[in-house]
Amino acid sequence: MFEKEIEEYESVRLEYQQKIADRMGRKQWMEYNEILFSAHSCAIEGNSFTVDDTRILREQGMAMIPVGRSLLECTEMADHFRAFDYMVSHLDHSFDEALLKEVNRLVTEHTLSYRAPGAIAGEYTTEDMAAGDTVFGDHETLIARVPQLMASTQKAIDDGQHPLVVAAKWHGYYEYLHPFRDGNGRTGRLLSNFILLRADHPIQIIRLEDRSEYISALKQIRTEGTDEHLVAFFFKTAISRMKGELAQKRKNSLPTLFF
């Protein structure tokens, strides 16, 4: 399954790596991805920061709050930067509960007390959860499945399964478990990229404009009992992003005459 998608993805990935990622250099490529990924991942959860707002905050810090943005949004974005930086600097970490909890702690550290007074960043929820129009199952039952999810995902990584398939499948089941009081979406997207980065694959960026399709694919895991839609969405999104940036580079490489 997904042989056609894997073949296309790997073909585009090779060109993307050679013409964009390698030519940028690791440091600049990661900075570019961090800003783009953080802006869209937080926007999916309702943050109003644009990509330009995110870049300004990343470059100038909390001393420069973009016009019209709240302090809470700035703090949420700053927390996301810290979680991203931790992830990138710990790619040798086992894919386990310790990693999961630390990423969630960082991503919610300075905003959780506002959104869920009494909850502890990086610790599992102590009450049942709901998000949007979805009511999740018994939180104790779902949390008890987390260790098995992390272990089976690590085994899939070790067995050499395709990283994008592993990232998508892990993400879908993790969001189904929804084990934390806040930050489950951001945490899930960060650790999906942990899987990809450790395999030297491009970062997966789910854009705000694709939010409805993304949420629908996640819901189909519950309604249809399959993650095929989410895996297909991951491939579609990744290929589209790489092709778009390659096309942008080709266009911007053409000489422009000013006379």
Form type: globular
Q: Give the N-to-C terminal Cα separation.
A: 54 Å
Helix/strand class: mainly alpha
The main β sheet shows up as: 2 strands, antiparallel
**C-alpha Rg, in Å?**
19 Å
Please give a structural write-up:
The structure is a single chain. It contains twelve helices and two strands; from the N terminus they run ααααααββαααααα. With 259 residues, it is mainly alpha-helical. A two-stranded antiparallel ribbon has the order 1-2. Strand 1 and strand 2 form a beta hairpin.
Which features does this protein show?
2% strand; mainly alpha; two-stranded antiparallel ribbon; 259 residues; globular
A few lines on this structure:
It is built from 12 helices and 2 strands. With 259 residues, the chain is mainly alpha-helical. The model has no long low-confidence stretch (mean pLDDT 94).
